[in-house]
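Appendix C: a fully annotated inverse folding record. The material below is reproduced so that readers can follow the format used throughout the book. The structure is listed first as tokens, followed by the designed sequence.
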């Protein structure tokens, strides 16, 4: 049985105190209700990883994740963060391949494949994002594009490594826009992604891989998205910055 999961990507938002307050509100409301088998992951800015993980580690099923990591172990890479640094702050997950990293920091599939390999080699779990832009969808290239992102970014992994990956389908046109993919669009792409996994790996890998939806998911639309057969939860941006909204999304699982 694959896990349902919700992750919050706080991006470059909040002061340290605001981040602590948000993590504490979420943690206190999840106390006693979380299941280790339904991970909830808070992904704050890198500078707040330790403060947030000191809160999440007290709650079963609540984890901290980073928003990026470097592909090398260590060295002269000014401004970057390594996997070991992330782990030393108590975080267990990393988001890789977010469309903002792809667009603004020119991260391509080849670079991302190295980051994924590095993260897994050192024991960090990966939430790997994929998704098409609006022109790509309008020209009906969205399936090919997502396939290429997964083939080049992920499918070099062994079955064992693949079991540590969560995939997040995030259509770029839905991220931060207030326009959400319909439940049919989400299900169609999630089923396609699972069929790709089935082509490359054993059925058990495809059956057990959690595929999250991301893109203007909110308390109003979360339930119908999460009810889709191949949608296993969400990667949440804007709505993860308000405890009430994020908790309502979690409770839509
Ligand atoms: C995201 O950036 O991963 C995301 C899903 O953002 P939003 O929920 O704000 O669309």
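Designed amino acids, in order:
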């Amino acid at each position: 049985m694959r896990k349902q999961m919700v992750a919050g990507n706080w991006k470059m938002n909040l002061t340290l105190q605001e981040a602590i307050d948000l993590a504490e509100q979420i943690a206190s409301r999840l106390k006693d209700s979380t299941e280790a088998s339904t991970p909830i992951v808070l992904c704050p800015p890198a500078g707040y990883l330790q403060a947030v993980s000191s809160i999440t580690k007290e709650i079963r099923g609540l984890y901290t994740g980073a928003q990026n990591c470097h592909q090398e172990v260590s060295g002269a890479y000014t401004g970057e963060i390594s996997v070991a640094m992330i782990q030393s702050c108590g975080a267990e997950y990393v988001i890789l391949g977010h469309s903002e990293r792809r667009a603004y920091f020119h991260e391509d599939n080849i670079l991302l494949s190295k980051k994924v390999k590095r993260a897994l080699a050192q024991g960090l779990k990966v939430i790997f994002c994929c998704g098409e832009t609006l022109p790509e969808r309008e020209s009906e290239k969205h399936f090919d594009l997502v396939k290429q992102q997964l083939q080049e970014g992920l499918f070099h992994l062994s079955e064992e490594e693949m079991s540590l990956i969560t995939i997040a389908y995030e259509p770029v046109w839905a991220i931060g826009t207030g326009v959400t993919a319909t439940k049919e669009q989400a299900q169609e792409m999630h089923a396609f992604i699972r069929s790709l996994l089935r082509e490359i790996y054993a059925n058990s890998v495809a059956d057990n891989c959690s595929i999250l939806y991301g893109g203007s998911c909110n308390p109003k639309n979360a339930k119908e998205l999460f009810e889709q057969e191949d949608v296993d939860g969400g990667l949440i941006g804007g709505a993860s910055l308000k405890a009430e909204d994020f908790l309502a999304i979690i409770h839509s699982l």
